[in-house]
Amino acid sequence: MTPQELAAQIARILSTIIDGRALDDDASLTVTEADTQVERPRNRDHGDWASNVAMKFAKRLGENPRVLAEQVATEIAAIDGVASAEIAGPGFINITLDAASAGETARVIVTEGSQYGRGAALEGQHIHLEFVSANPTGPLHLGHTRWAALGDSLSRVLRAAGAEVTNEYYINDAGAQMDKFGRSVLAAALGEPAPEDAYPGEYIHELGAKVLEQIPDLAAQAAEDRAAALSLAQEAAYQQQLAEIKDSLERFNVHFDVFFSERTLHTAGADGTPSPIEGSVDRLREQGHVYEDDGAIWVRTTTFGDDKDRVFTRGNGIYTYFAADAAYYLSKKDRGFGEKIYLLGADHHGYVGRLTAIAGAAGDDTERDITALIGQLVNLNGAKLSKRAGNIVELDDLLEWLGSDALRYWLARYPADSPLSLDGEKLRSRTNDNPVFYVQYAHARTRAVDRNAEAAGIDRSAFEPAQLTHDTETELLGKLQQYPAIVAGAADLREPHRIARYLEELAADYHRWYDNCRVIPQGEDPVTDLHRTRLWLNDAAGQVIRNGLDLLGVSAPERL
RNA sequence: GCCUUGGUAGCUCAGUGGAUAGAGCACCGCUCUCCUAAAGCGGGUGUCGAAGGUUCGAUUCCUUUCCAGGGCACCA
Fold it and tell me: Which nucleotide is closest, CA of A453 to its C1'?
């Protein structure tokens, strides 16, 4: 009996009861499983699961919660697998399961394997997830790591809930920043002094050297035609930098389905069709949201809650960044995505109003079709990192220093809107200070037990869940049963950190169980069905930790 | 000024209207002839920033307010 099944049963019971009252109550009350979700009481004296439906519905039925609870509890107690259902406090129904019914979960988990915890709550949804989208004018650094870890984990969680998700990286490969980047690299390659506004950082010189390798006669070309040489150098540096970014992301176990080039938005079709940007201003104009003022072309974004209208085309005829944003949004819409999620740093939260307005101007539902997740920036030992300042801490350096697992886990275990500090010393320490080790250790323990069990001749030929009665066993089983709801909740709220927090609790329950309940008999004691049954539970715990870590993009090692 | 996100134990932080608000760290003890002691067990700590409101019930929702971070371009 899983909590989901229990909730479904309670929904049926409550519906029947309410139908019986409908004679003298015209209120049309419908009961959904969302209303009848049971929760795990903090205090185990309150049973395995608790329901608050009596308090929720008593008022709408005009009844005393405890009286309603009494009636519901009687029905619950009659469910197969339920040992008791008792009324407590203002109207809680505390439910205790038969040990066999609770223990059955262990076998379910082992049978379902990597599928355990996956659901269909978001089935049919085609979600677009854009994150990182760092300019290809430099290496990924600390400022990008949080979104990389969070975005990749979020997409895994959404997929686990049944959604179809496309991870996309928007490459800002057009515009003034790219020009500046090109000039910086060209100067470095030719050994010239850096331009006034050049990008700082040693990597510019490294890129310059690589460009020179590819174009040995760059100096001669520059002497002949500076603009052409600049263009060549810029393109070579861009391709090199983008390749390095992709490489870093792969090593961070972050996967993108699409790298979307901003240039394609500026490029007209070979057959003379207008560029996506040109096309988008016309499309917005058709919707009636475009006007001209003072030589510029504006979009009336204030219609959709933006705090000011935005310029699409400047007085000098050049498109603004907003124009590209609008065209990009329309591209996502045209490609058939429903919800478009943007992961943005708090330093970009001023964009939310205009992005939302674009969705509205495009005729989309600003509530349903666009989501902006704003996150706080990462600190490193208290010092915030800025690319402009030149003191770059690169993702590659962090990976080498801390490893992908520790970094991924740490970045994913906090809510996005919570400030986060990366403490290198803590992340390198192999103690409880570093929760990824705690969780991975629990997993490695399950594998060690599995290996030792096999060596001791303990197999899974018996499964007697009624024997799983130790306090630590009911705790562990209860935790394992919660996993599908945790995944569904994390997906629904777009909060992958809930997976990490859950895993830490699960690991603690597993460690406690390990210390109290042996899978392998001591000394000359015989192997019993209890040991065999516990092997199922051990494997179930390992499976769930593995499934959860996978959602975070963190490995589940066989040994530590 | 406007928008936005925080304020929870000594520290770092969890906590999607429920019962006595939790974890790790730090501090003091305890547990390995036996599956990994990178573990477990025991010991105490809170005006949930403040004040109102909604509710059977508020750390959670609403309003006001104090403090802190971030943002408010015909930049990208």
Answer: B35
Domain count, chain A: 4
| Residue A538 counted as domain residue | yes
Separation of CA A56 and C1' B52 in angstroms?
A: 26
Is ipTM over 0.90? yes
User: Mind listing the pLDDT tens digit for each residue in A505-544?
Assistant: 999 999 999 999 999 999 888 999 999 999 999 999 999 9
Round and report the angstrom distance from CA (A373) to C1' (B50): 29
Among A192, A210, A241, the domain boundary falls at A241
Closest nt to A522 (CA→C1')?
B34
A420 CA → B6 C1’, Å = 12
Residue nearest to nucleotide B39 (CA to C1'): A511
Quick one: A84 and A46 in the same domain?
yes
By three-state DSSP, how is residue A245 classified? helix
Are A284 and A293 in contact by the 8 Å Cβ rule? The answer is no
Distance separating alpha carbons of residues A29 and A66, to the nearest angstrom:
19
Q: What is the CATH number of the domain that holds A79?
A: 3.30.1360.70
Residue A119 maps to a domain: no
Give residue A52's pLDDT. 93
Could you tell me the distance in Å between the CA of residue A344 and the C1' of nucleotide B5?
13
Residue A105 domain-assigned?
Answer: no
Protein-to-nucleotide distance from the CA of A345 to the C1' of B5, whole angstroms: 11
DSSP A44: G
Which residue has the closest alpha carbon to B17 C1'? A56
User: Is the backbone of residue A132 left (phi > 0), alpha (psi -120 to 50) or beta?
Assistant: left
Last residue of a domain, one of A411, A427, A443: A427
Which residue minimizes Cα–C1' distance to B4?
Answer: A349
